[in-house]
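# nightly structure sweep
# worker-07 picked up a monomer target from the shared queue
# config: single-sequence mode, recycle default, output format = structure tokens
# input follows
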Amino acid sequence: MSTRPWIVDDDLWALVEPLLPPWPEKAPGPRPVPDRQCLQGILYVLHNDIAWRLLPLELRFGSGQTCWRRLERWQKAGTFDQLHRILLAK
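# output follows
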């Protein structure tokens, strides 16, 4: 097991990326944190069992709030259910 299991390697990213809902073209606010970085932030929080607000900004995964919102968006889109089915099939 990696010493940093929250890092998403290229093989896993190749499975996840096509499942993610597209970002709205005219989304308000600043340019979003890239999806891969947010996923790594989500995995970091879950792996370390910390509060979202404690996600270290220096890791460059985005804020805890950003990662939490992205997680919520992906859950509503069914991304993790789809990924689970794909991983079970492998």
